[in-house]
Amino acid sequence: MNRKPAVLVTRKLPPNVEARLARDYDARFNAADRLYSGEELLALSEGADAILPCHTEHLNAEVIRRLPDRIRAIANFSVGVDHCDLDAARQRGIIVTNTPDVLTDATAELTMLLLLGAARRASEGERLIRSGQWSTWSPSFMLGTQVTGKRLGIIGMGRIGQMTARRARGLDMEIHYHNRSRLPDALEGGAIYHESLDSLLPLSEFLALHCPNTPETQNLFNADLIARLPDGAIVVNSARGNIVDEDALLDALRSGRIAAAGLDVFKDEPHIRPEFAKLDNTFLLPHLGSATRETRDAMGYRALDNLDAVFAGREPMDRVA
Ligand code: 8YV
Fold first, then answer.
1. 258/205 Cα distance (integer angstroms)
2. Residue nearest atom 4 in ligand 1 by C-alpha distance
3. CATH code, domain with 145
């Protein structure tokens, strides 16, 4: 290709990433960072050779089926690809990539924040101070759950699950996990494998969800799963909201069956169920898992490395379809 490939960039990306895009591609930016509907995406894709979307763009089967023939690649600025219908892309011969590895540290770090924030009642304490209502202290004031030395169950032991385990070991947590397959010893780092949730759940004083959002994991965290956790367990989710049955979680938080939840992701972001914010035993963040300056740059560069490979006729490093 003699001309620079045209790339539709659906969201405003970090300046360094946009500078590289402008240098190497005929980049169509979204300076106002407006969310595009499916129809807008299709219209803006005319004349483009590739799309660089975030998880906020719904590249469902219908949108992908209607993309212009010229589109060769969808280079996602995300590790999760549940917003993108991979089968539909395969059928069209469109290459799809994601950005693994570079957001592992940031997301595991945030998972620890959720764990600590939920266990130690951080939101409630913050609210008390910010509202000017802190008026007393006593030995029994705002007691939380100690994290150090507790058992942590991890569902989904991919890169982020493994990094969360490493970080949690810093708090002397005993790590148990369930995954489709057992990890090799070197990656397990002493974590105890459970082939089924039946044995993992009853001993998970803390539970971290790290599995991808797939048809099999939708509402995986439901009333049946909750009933198998120890009383007063604490759950954190930095993966995807779809894996949680939010009604069941809200019921369990209200009854105290689940002592607290740390949530960075929700089913219908950014329209979260108002009940979550009304509860004292929730610690809530607006999908900030990978939201650090370092990681955003690295995600952009990784997406561009993948695009560069496609247009140089090489196999991209992170091809998922
Ligand atoms: C990103 C994420 O912020 O990469 C993912 O899958 O969930 C987030 O950490 C977002 O997806 C960027 O598009």
1. 10
2. 78
3. 3.40.50.720
